[in-house]
């Protein structure tokens, strides 16, 4: 139970009771990371249903749906996305990019990348049908499962950092096996609930993961907490856009 609470304490805004963090619990905490997606996905779908039944316009609906995952997580993953946008836009060498990731200031490319992301995500959400929204809701579990898998099997880009410290001496085989289980269940549920839109969203997640793997190895030499946040945001954007485009194509 403490490992579960530790994961929610780190990666969500859900209030959790105070407790003493023990080393053994930290080693297993990542196994529960995808369950945060259940919270975010449930909130996303409930807001979608409320907007649909209240007769909200597509822009208003899209804006609220865009805000849901940011509010559920406190923007911790978006922070990594913005830092990575700055680092990649520097066109520096690996060490310079890693140094920029640690910079607490937001540069012009972070602002531009964040603005573009929110516009595309809002636009995608505004076009989601109910089955597509259901698939995207489950996709919050899939994105975290893929992110957790990368953290378990990809090398770290540096020895110390938020992700490196959190994963230090973790039971990586247990984490990887847990992530594969979450991936299979969530992807199956997305296809079952969303049909073609769900399949398109799941495919979008896989493509985002393949792109992420190539990018982190080529540009950074491994993963960091910021890069993990970048991937999670990118994965969720790919899923929303894939579901929306699929709906428009078949409607």
From TrEMBL:
Pathway(s) per entry: Cofactor biosynthesis; adenosylcobalamin biosynthesis; adenosylcobalamin from cob(II)yrinate a,c-diamide: step 7/7
Keyword rRNA-binding: no
Transcription listed as a keyword: no
EC number: 2.7.8.26
Record's subcellular location: Cell membrane
Reactions accelerated catalytically: alpha-ribazole 5'-phosphate + adenosylcob(III)inamide-GDP = adenosylcob(III)alamin 5'-phosphate + GMP + H(+); alpha-ribazole + adenosylcob(III)inamide-GDP = adenosylcob(III)alamin + GMP + H(+)
Cofactor dependency: Mg(2+)
Membrane topology field: Multi-pass membrane protein
Pfam families attached to this UniProt entry: CobS
Signal peptide per UniProt: none
Protein task: Joins adenosylcobinamide-GDP and alpha-ribazole to generate adenosylcobalamin (Ado-cobalamin). Also synthesizes adenosylcobalamin 5'-phosphate from adenosylcobinamide-GDP and alpha-ribazole 5'-phosphate.
Name of the protein this chain belongs to: Adenosylcobinamide-GDP ribazoletransferase
